């Protein structure tokens, strides 16, 4: 858990990687989505975008076309043969998913990160499996902040007004803050909530950072800045 946050910031800011090699992407053929007549989407981004994939043997492959099915936590990619497969996550060290540029341009939400880092091994948190890809926003000696994306399939109860209730996907995101004692807190991306979730010894420092740097912790980019600075102390 306690790895240098500078690695994450470097990846997001510069998109640079130490070793780019030709990798065979392992997985099984992707099938057409079984979710017919369902409103909403099981995908994090409806449009295809590009990913950088790092494997457990140290190789890295850039520019991989992907869609991330967050209902099943399945990463669909296009392999070297041009076939769409579901990536075998046993061989994945981490992935960096590019947010489709159009989503950033069209969004009314400020501070969206262009690239999102996903890692595994957060199974000590209830509801997360060992091979689930989880968004890592900050990672340091004092604090790690992660986010679980999920698309819940909901079927409303039938009633007299809707005799044929339709199913729909409901987008969810849950933030978890992990401190240096590996205590996990479920938090919201709000300044007052984040500040209250800090260790008492870091509370005043956190308040000063927010005030001095004019941070709004509802923003993804400000969350990265906040924990990058806080993990230095």
From TrEMBL:
Keyword Signal part of the UniProt annotation: yes
Its signal peptide is: 1-18
Q: Which UniProt keywords apply?
A: Signal
The molecule here is called Uncharacterized protein
């Amino acid at each position: 858990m306690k790895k240098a946050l500078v690695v994450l910031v470097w990846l997001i800011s510069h998109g640079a990687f130490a070793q780019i090699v030709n990798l065979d992407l392992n997985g099984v053929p992707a099938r057409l989505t079984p979710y017919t007549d369902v409103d909403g989407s099981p995908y994090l981004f409806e449009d295809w975008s590009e990913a950088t994939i790092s494997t457990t043997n140290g190789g890295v492959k850039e520019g991989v076309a992907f869609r991330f099915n967050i209902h099943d936590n399945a990463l669909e990619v296009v392999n070297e043969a041009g076939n769409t497969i579901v990536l075998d996550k046993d061989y994945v060290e981490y992935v960096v998913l590019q947010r489709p540029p159009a989503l950033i341009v069209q969004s009314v939400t400020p501070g969206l990160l262009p690239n999102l880092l996903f890692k595994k091994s957060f199974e000590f948190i209830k509801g997360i499996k060992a091979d689930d890809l989880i968004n890592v926003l900050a990672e340091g000696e004092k604090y790690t902040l992660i986010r679980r994306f999920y698309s819940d399939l909901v079927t409303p109860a039938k009633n007299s007004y809707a005799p044929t209730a339709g199913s729909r996907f409901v987008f969810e995101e849950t933030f978890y803050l992990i401190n240096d004692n590996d205590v996990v807190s479920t938090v919201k991306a709000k300044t007052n909530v984040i500040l209250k979730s800090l260790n008492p010894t870091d509370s005043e420092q956190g308040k000063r950072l927010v005030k001095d740097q004019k941070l709004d912790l509802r923003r993804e980019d400000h969350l990265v800045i906040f924990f990058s600075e806080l993990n230095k102390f």
